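Cont'd.
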Amino acid sequence: MQRNAVTSLPREKQAGQAGYARRRRFLDMNDVRVFAASLTMPAQIVLLLIIIFPLLTEVYISLTAWTPTRGGDWTQAYQFWDWGHNYALVFQDLAFWQALGRTFLIVAVAVTLEFLLGLGLAFLFMDDFFGKRVFYALMLVPMMIVPAVAGYVFWLFFQSNGPLNAIISLVIGRPFELTWLATDLTAMIAVIIAEVWQWTPLMFLIMLSGLVGLPEDQMRAATMLGASFWQKFRYLMLPMMKPIIIIALVIRGMEAVKIFDMIYLMTTGGPAQATETISIYMYKVAFQQVRWSYAAAAAMTILVIMTIIASYALRPLQAPQRQLAASTEIGSGE
Amino acid sequence: MSKANIWRTVLRYVLVIIVVGMFTFPTYWMVSMAFKPKGEWSSAAGTIYWVPENPTLDNFDTVLTEYQGKFFRANQSSALPSIRSSIIVSVGATLFALLLGTLAAYGLSRFSMDTGDLPWYIALGRMALLIIAMLPFMVLWARLGIIRYWYGILTFTLLGIGVDQAIGRLLARFYKGPTGSLAFSILQLRMFPPMAIMIPVMLMWSAFKLVDTWYGLVIIYGVVTFPFVVWLMKSFFDEVPRELDEAAIVDGSSNWGAFIKVVLPLVKGGLASTALFVFILNWSDFLVALLLTTRYWPTIPVFLNTLVSSEIGAQHGPKAALGLLAVIPPVVFGLMIQRYLVRGLTFGAIKK
């Protein structure tokens, strides 16, 4: 019985050398290519099933003026065909672009704060101290809390008679009553605080693993040469941590763009549209205004924008090893 | 200890306690709320209750026992159905995602099909060609009236897969670079806001009669979370030296045998932590369940959101109690696998 090792020569060459008649049976698992295909095939098929039909449906609906309230089900949408009208509307819709801008604003502010807080905390947790494990575990809890529950808790938290106002009253020594979720700016701040609360632990964890992994002898050498903490941070830690920092920022950014649960439960995008992110905007258009074809056009526009951003943003993730290797060279060479 | 060191220690403790306290307070507030009787829920009278003065288990009782439909939604008088729903759906979807993802991860790890960076114009171009080619068929299928039935969707999708493959071949002729890879599309799937694909998914699910069923949720959760399985498991498989599978094959085991009997047992720990991680993701979802369940299978987060009584107003205590129950499994599992959390949430890019 002749078998192919996983990484051995292609079968034809072997067959030629051994005089083995080229006879390939259907689904011959000893054939490496069949084996490789059968491993990835289920995932491929499910991906295509879940991408092709919804994608085409979305495009189809977006090219019509159909919506559930216009009568008929969506298969009859061709009766309301109106080419790219919805797309023209999307491009002119200020609310859409504002929601997009707001999403990126929340992402930028929240991810920056998460990064700074996470890095600071990681420095605090670098050395051992009594009770470190308990504090560490407590610090990790927020990121494991179901976002919908967290959204509800923060809704309670920011009520005018809620604990936050009570704490502020205690600190300033007089009653403080602010309805956080009712004015534009404070609602935005509240949403960002909730987002930062939930995801700083992840940044903290990533930064801590980066700091702990730094080569100790270089740090000690720098200390002996009399480098200040700031110098060590600026010229040693930061360059060596750069790839990890980039990956952390990209991943948090990617995930934060999708923010929905917390905002939905805290403000539902309000007051008015003050905290309406792109997900909330699409939810409102589809399910409150019941404009499905328009929502589909908006969704397609988002898909295009996100694909463009993704292809640039994901580069650091595609070859983390190469990046890490390159950076250690920079770190030790300079 | 020198004086400077003492000051540094004190400063560190002060900072750690302040920051960790701030991050723990919201969780504490939920826990304390769960044990407060109704009178202490809000501070309407001007006093705020930092700790439950008369701790009670009534809130848990309210959530977990039948109340003759008095408090909650018409057909559900307790949270028990939603707890059952969450458990069944999360476990089922985790198994589904593991099955799909582990196989694909092994394939990607051993037979590297990752063709590298895909420029956006190729990704979009491929998508646009597919849309242009398939749109007429969509309209045709719609006019024939078969698109709303499962066989219409199936034939259309099969046709689409064929056309997609043809486009891939065609592109490869004119463009000598990567024209798309499984790895990339898996990663890309995580980029899109779920809201952007939910409208057609809802239409598809209603065609397949999958709305408000446990298996409908299992399928969509499985699809949404299996990319995480792929990236996590790939990073675990990459750590197993290839020489091991080769040795097994030389010793006479088949390709499948080498995978199942040699490689899989070596990544047992990784597989278990991946399972727990994906379980947490499924358990935490709100949006998909909100859109795809109505009466029978709302999960805990969805049910929690509807927990309002017409008789006594907002149900803060019971809501917090249910929230506390909902939070226990992910926190316990999360702390169990904290070593792997970073790896999971960064798609295996940071291994620690």
